[in-house]
């Protein structure tokens, strides 16, 4: 993960009375890597860069019950795929071994800006 990367530490939450056995650190690390790979398969159809490198993923958390919660945004509130992209993300991360359920929340706070893009995305878009 680069310094420009969003917060995607799929950390296991603890302290819930109904929580199952905590997920081992090694598995959390593997799931984190696999989630990033899955997120990089989802593209904004109007921009030839994946949503992870674009900085559209704000946060990813893995609960002890293996529910993966993703908070994401879009490049603009009026994005033509606003109704579809969260489903694409949910489908992609649901395929990760060890994830039992995925929930995707769309937010526009804070609004996305090009500053959130990784250097890799800037290079692909000739912005460096």
Descriptors:
single chain; alpha+beta; three-stranded mixed beta sheet
What does this structure look like?
With 128 residues, this protein is of the alpha+beta class. It is built from four helices and three strands. The chain has helices at residues 25-39, 51-54, 85-94, 119-124; strands at 57-62, 67-72, 101-106. The two termini are 19 Å apart. The model is unreliable at 1-5 and 11-19 (pLDDT under 50).
Mean pLDDT: 87
How many beta strands in the DSSP annotation?
A: 3
List the total number of helices.
4
**Spatial strand sequence of the major β-sheet:** 1-2-3
Order of helices and strands: HHEEHEH
Distance between the termini: 19 Å
Q: Bin the strand percentage.
A: 5-15%
Residue runs with pLDDT of under 50 for 5 or more positions: 1-5, 11-19
Helix content: 25-40%
- Any idea what the radius of gyration is? 15 Å
The main β sheet shows up as:
3 strands, mixed
- What is the structural class? alpha+beta
Shape: globular
């Amino acid at each position: 993960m680069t310094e420009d990367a969003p917060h995607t530490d799929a950390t296991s939450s603890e302290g819930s009375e109904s929580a199952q056995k905590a997920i081992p650190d090694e598995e959390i690390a593997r799931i984190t890597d696999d989630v990033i790979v899955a997120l990089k398969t989802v593209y904004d159809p109007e921009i030839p860069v994946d949503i992870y490198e674009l900085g559209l993923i704000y946060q990813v958390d893995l609960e002890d019950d293996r529910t993966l919660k993703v908070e994401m945004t879009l490049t603009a509130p009026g994005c033509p795929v606003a109704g579809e992209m969260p489903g694409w993300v949910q489908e992609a991360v649901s395929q990760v071994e060890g994830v039992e359920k995925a929930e995707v929340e769309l937010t526009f706070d804070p609004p996305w800006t090009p500053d959130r893009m990784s250097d890799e995305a800037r290079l692909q878009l000739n912005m460096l």
